[in-house]
Amino acid sequence: METGTWKVKTGLAQMLKGGVIMDVVNAEQAKIAQEAGACAVMALERVPADIRAAGGVARMADPTIIEAIMETVSIPVMAKCRIGHFVESQVLEALGVDFIDESEVLTPADETHHIWKHDFKVPFVCGCRDLGEALRRIREGAAMIRTKGEAGSGNIVEAVRHMRAVMGSIRKLVDTSQEELMTQAKEMGAPFELVAEIHTTGKLPVVNFAAGGVATPADAALMMQLGADGVFVGSGIFKSSNPEVRAKAIVKATTHFQDPKIIAEVSKNLGEAMPGLDIKQIPTEELLASRGW
Amino acid sequence: MKIGVLASQGAFAEHIAALQQLGVETLPVRLLEELTGLDGLIIPGGESTSISSLMLGYNLMDEIRSLAKNGLPMFGTCAGMILLAKRVSDLSVEPIGVMEITVKRNAFGRQKDSFEAKLPIPVLGEKPFPGIFIRAPLIEHGNSGVEILARLADGTSVAARQEKLLASAFHPELTNDLRLHQYFLDIVAGRQ
What we know:
The structure holds two protein chains of two kinds.
Chain A: E1 2-3, H1 6-15, E2 20-24, H2 27-36, E3 40-43, H3 48-54, H4 63-72, E4 77-82, H5 86-95, E5 99-103, E6 124-128, H6 131-139, E7 144-147, H7 157-175, H8 181-188, H9 192-201, E8 207-209, H10 217-225, E9 231-233, H11 235-238, H12 243-255, H13 260-266
Parallel strand pairs in A: 2-3, 2-9, 3-4, 4-5, 5-6, 6-7, 7-8
Chain B: E1 2-6, H1 12-21, E2 25-29, E3 40-43, H2 48-57, H3 60-69, E4 74-77, H4 79-84, E5 85-89, E6 99-104, E7 115-119, E8 129-133, E9 138-142, E10 147-151, E11 157-162, E12 165-168, H5 179-188
Parallel strand pairs in B: 1-2, 1-3, 3-4, 4-12, 5-6
Antiparallel strand pairs in B: 6-9, 7-8, 10-11, 11-12
């Protein structure tokens, strides 16, 4: 019996596909998420919209919160550590969380280096804005990728930009001739062997979720139609006026993403969505997506 | 032969790919009307609570239960096995409940305890099967009429068959070994 293998790490991500991973800040919210059909929860001290509002340094959540959530639900529990903060990730692994998100939503601990994730038995998910960034994270050991989007904004535009960038580059690589692959790898700053693999397979070697700005069932279905394997919803659920109903609606829209009639049906009477931000009005230094490389 | 794969949530695409490699027509199933005209149904791995609530939300649960009772062959892997079981410990969801087995969820622990193990499965021949166990369940007990097909080295039951119903705690769809899928197709075709 062998634990912590690449196969069981990427395999857990495969089990999450077609599902919705919801940010929760306490056991009660975790229960609501599970009952709504979430395939996993992300245990946090504050949702991104509140992190954004609070300012200052955002760190790994208090282990008490994470443990309370792990005791309450039977679905996988994820938690975030700061970019490059490999001791926070050691702590999260020791707590027994099922997945670690090395996340730009928290204040980076290292502006140059990400965590070498192969050192861990617990799988990691990392954010990306384009294919090069995705492949760098995968080579460091990320068993799952997500778009960065712009967390806590309630605005889907950045997630769309990042998903289109990833999927568009994959399509381009498939059509690239063999002798051009090294140049592509150089230009993307991506490991050659992964570039060559995508040229052959036409897909990422790990599961790719959408994240950062999903606020409505239609947002979730949009990301799925653009090629996401599933969806993270951060502030979008518990910052809306009726979390239970909205959570269920987003779960259904993610499964039935190709069925506009169902998306229409579940979009009715959801109450207020979370307040959204125009990305252009967020000061550049406050953009979360530009954290990490 | 047409095999449906329940596509509410989870690793359904992997099952579809395995079946296509075996040359079988497949259909992802999300809605009630997609259950008609099938020769067999696969219930994939994923989150059993999530799959169950999506099945209930679109009235699939009762229909799948009645199809199983009427002899439609079904194969459940991991979460799929949980949903096929009649008795599940620690379950916050409603199972389909058609196999006479008692299943324990997350039986080996959390993700850090997920593992790979080479499994002897006598009905598939001598070569061990690559068992991938992810937050996997186990079979605590099988009533009469249930044949245990695979055990771990310590004797834990991890795959079972009851007439045309097949269940595994592990994920054959994450491997390149198609023997368990072929075994299921043989059940569907009446060769097993």
